[in-house]
């Protein structure tokens, strides 16, 4: 029953709707594009053909007994040997396909025809109808499924038809529960609520909207249920309670072979093999269908990595321009950094040649739209870029004079421990929900230190005190969900500071907080920086925050730093058209007060499909289609005391 | 509070289950006494069977008698052996529990380890092999796997006994065979939930502390995944109790499952009723227990309970 539970418990249809393929052909195409789908579909078709034509294909009479030839080994005359009554096993398997698979089809249809209407009805009528249906489902699910099927057979007697009813009854609750869950969430969709309030008849809403939307889910469920129904039904046959002799059915044949397992094992081999492969076929097909209809199971849809390796293109050759040497004394020094995501189309470059330095005690703010590569850059500097997703293709990163790329695991841990602290945007995700704050802090304090337990605890208390959390002693034993958002972010900062890092990386640390708390967190960070002389890398999209808080600023667009320098210099007069556009679209900019906010024209750039020449060209108000903007990516030049990548930067001076 | 609420919802279910099992005899088409007595029986014989089954009593008396049979040996006896049903069941229960608990434990361990291996290198060779094995494990009819194992390990190699339940060695094959399904289920579950957890920021927070990847995985990611595994373990355990019907037949173990199958083929209605009732009660209690454990393991839901 658990196969079905995994389907039933994860309907997630609210998101599934976007994925539901429109036409049958799309389904088929997506199905055969997966190895699981093509193998499963082929086998299922073969089995169905076997069930239809099997009896006609049988070379010998499956019922004729021949006592001169009992229990023969497989041979040319009897491919799979003969059984204890001298009947040809191969012929019996071909003939038995119809009964075996027929029971599966019958059982699933029976359950479908009763369970789905019940589930839809419960979701539609709600109230007592739903209560009764759900209670009945609870009661039915209180019996292990094969035991329930046994009870039905005990009541009705052992026969093929009764086995169909037995395994069908067992699956009714699964269909009813899934149908109800999926229908409920579809009925909650705004467009359906709309048509109901406009007076559409219930039958029409269900036929037009509900059924088409839940059909994919139900098809998946039916396929997976078919496999388990087949196994339960044959299990009953195996116990001698299913199809009665002399009629062949694979489970019954297995049951008969049990007495001969010592002397004639091949008797059990072939029916078992056919049974196992048919269950496998339907499971494969069901899994493939699930990846189409249930986006929560995307993982299985991912093509195998070795195929990826074959397909993967080489990274675009990085320009071999000589890199500047890292600045001596810098806490962070990045040179010519290029990074690319692995994708089905090969490598997609997200960071395209970044140089930056952060001196100890200073704050560098990296500003840009979402998708500009700023978070990827931050993770790379924090040595936390997931190598399975994204690769550094060129360049160097140095933290406090040590290279942070290509380190052995032990050296990497040591670097993280001594030098790096990190603060994420959403503190709720940055803390482990099932560990106490004390456990998470202790872990940071203890790693690589030799303090005893009491000293560790004292240090944790001090850290919480440092970030202005009152009553730290008691708070250590609390779980993250017991704190407010601002407090959680303070705890994350405390963890980041626990090892006295040289560099603090903060990825939009305040954008999930409300304005008053934002201010407190920023003041706290600055205070910590002053006390400890840390370098801070702050990633944000908020220019006002940059103006108040950072020493240096770097504006990132499509993976490059298009304008960077001291905050005072850059913001006093912005030179790059993108920085100017950002400025104009930020609320409360010094010169923009009282003016209407502007949005930046055009679409943000598509990674992997950047325009030729300057990446900002299509949205640029300065370019006016000058040929230079098309010709080449503008070089980074020193103009008016800042680095800027625009061919016509001087026009803004 | 949650405990009482959950208990409160289990009680009506138990009551409904007992009613359903009680009416079992009345659901049989025709007269059960007639069926038991056979086509050639005289009216007196049928009447004595009716008396034995208590079919002539008023409904409420019969239900009271039925409930008493759960603990009172004199209230319900097997129609075939004339021994108290309670005794028949309790003699066999230990065998069934040994196989189910052993299988679940092995399945849990193997599944968790293979799930971790899959999640460590998604798309790698180990992941592909394990994914194929789990699919095979889910698709394998355990009665066939049991027969193959008997043939290979007991008949061919002679390492282990083929059938019976007299020595610990007799339990090795059944436990291993029955463990395949939970192993496959847990492997999938652990791999999926670990991969889901892999993208979480709190793992990066842990990594930034300089912890080893093993500790990040086992201490931070797996802890969250295992909470989900508990409820699946409950469902699996119930499934394995049900599966004992088949396993015990394959391996000739005198357990409750085997008793039930024999009772069904011999139409021993009292034994069928109480065996089914026992399975259902076990199932309800396991679900109850896993719900409570899951609730307690997750600090977030634990607190909600305290708050209400």
TrEMBL record, chain A:
Keywords: ATP-binding, Cell membrane, Membrane, Nucleotide-binding, Transmembrane, Transmembrane helix, Transport
Entry membrane topology: Peripheral membrane protein; Multi-pass membrane protein
Transport in keyword set: yes
InterPro entries: AAA+_ATPase (IPR003593), ABC_Ni/Peptide_Import (IPR050388), ABC_transporter-like_ATP-bd (IPR003439), ABC_transporter-like_CS (IPR017871), MetI-like (IPR000515), MetI-like_sf (IPR035906), Oligopep_ABC_C (IPR013563), OppC_N (IPR025966)
Region forming the signal peptide: none
Domain spans labelled ABC transporter: 334-583
GO molecular function list: ATP binding; ATP hydrolysis activity
Domain ABC transmembrane type-1, residue spans: 97-286
Record's GO cellular component terms: plasma membrane
Record-annotated membrane-spanning stretches: 38-58, 101-124, 136-157, 218-243, 263-285
Cellular localization per UniProt: Cell inner membrane; Cell membrane
GO biological process: peptide transport; transmembrane transport
Pfam families xrefs: ABC_tran, BPD_transp_1, oligo_HPY, OppC_N
Family note: Belongs to the binding-protein-dependent transport system permease family. Belongs to the ABC transporter superfamily.
Protein name per the record: Peptide/nickel transport system permease protein
Organism name: Bosea lathyri
UniProtKB/TrEMBL annotation, chain B:
GO CC list: plasma membrane
Membrane-spanning segments: 97-120, 132-153, 159-179, 225-251, 271-293
PROSITE patterns (UniProt xref): ABC_TM1
SUPFAM superfamilies listed in its UniProt record: MetI-like (SSF161098)
Keyword Iron applies: no
Biological process, per Gene Ontology: transmembrane transport
Record key words, sorted: Cell membrane, Membrane, Transmembrane, Transmembrane helix, Transport
Localization in the cell: Cell membrane
Coiled coil: none
Keyword Signal tagged: no
Membrane topology listed for this record: Multi-pass membrane protein
Ranges where the ABC transmembrane type-1 domain occurs: 93-294
The family this protein is said to belong to: Belongs to the binding-protein-dependent transport system permease family.
Protein known as: Oligopeptide transport system permease protein
Species for this entry: Bosea lathyri
Species classification: Bacteria, Pseudomonadati, Pseudomonadota, Alphaproteobacteria, Hyphomicrobiales
